[in-house]
Design a protein that fits this description.
It is built from 8 helices and 5 strands. Strand 3 and strand 4 form a beta hairpin. It folds into 2 domains: 183 residues, Butyryl-CoA Dehydrogenase, subunit A, domain 3 (Up-down Bundle); 40 residues. A 3-stranded antiparallel β-sheet has the order 2-1-5. Strands 3-4 form a two-stranded antiparallel ribbon. It is flat and about 65 Å long. By secondary structure, it is mainly alpha-helical. Helix 1 runs antiparallel to helix 3 and helix 4 runs antiparallel to helix 6.
Length: 231
Amino acid sequence: MKAVNNICRYAAIVFGLASLVLFFTSFATITTNGNEASFVAAQLAFGSKVEIAGVTYDMARSADILVCFFLTLVGAVSSFLAIKYKKARYAASAIGLGAAIYMLVIAASHPTKFIDKRPLENVTEITHTAIPWVIVAVLFIFTVLSIAYLLIDDYLEVKASNGEKITIPKRIARFFRDYKSEVKKIVWPGPRDVVKNTVIVLIMCLIVGILIWVIDFGLGQLLNLVLGIEG
């Protein structure tokens, strides 16, 4: 079990780094003024100067790709830190899943929705390469490996604790059991109480509104008096 745990741990790190590397490969092709230009994801995310047909353009940042890049970066770093800091396992799993879903949305959508083409002129076509889908696949594999490492490592810790700890699935199950029992203790108000409390809230809102208006009006008149402004 320890061997499988180590395999998942280091494989997650490898796939996390691989997903980052893929951001520096050809992500999309933009056709502008009849000329095709290839862009890597990092270029689109951070914006960069690009020369097309002898003209230099300072590309705008594509915010969604930038966010996805940072999620991927944080997920990869968390998987690396998990070697020493156990709590980073949770961050790697959650952030990796978030990055995978985010990139899936980008890959499945029309390129014009998430790629900022400014300041290019006369853009006739924007197409994705296969790289967005490859990044999606790598990020999902990274997430699966991170979760597997989290669960296996947690199981080994529980086993070594001689019953002092319980596994994550059992903790989740206990949480929902406790939640269900607490919900049963809730006493819901009847229709009469709901109407009564609603009326009280509305009256209090009206009173507070009037008080605020009176104070505001009074302070306004006082300020006009001090400044010598005639109303």
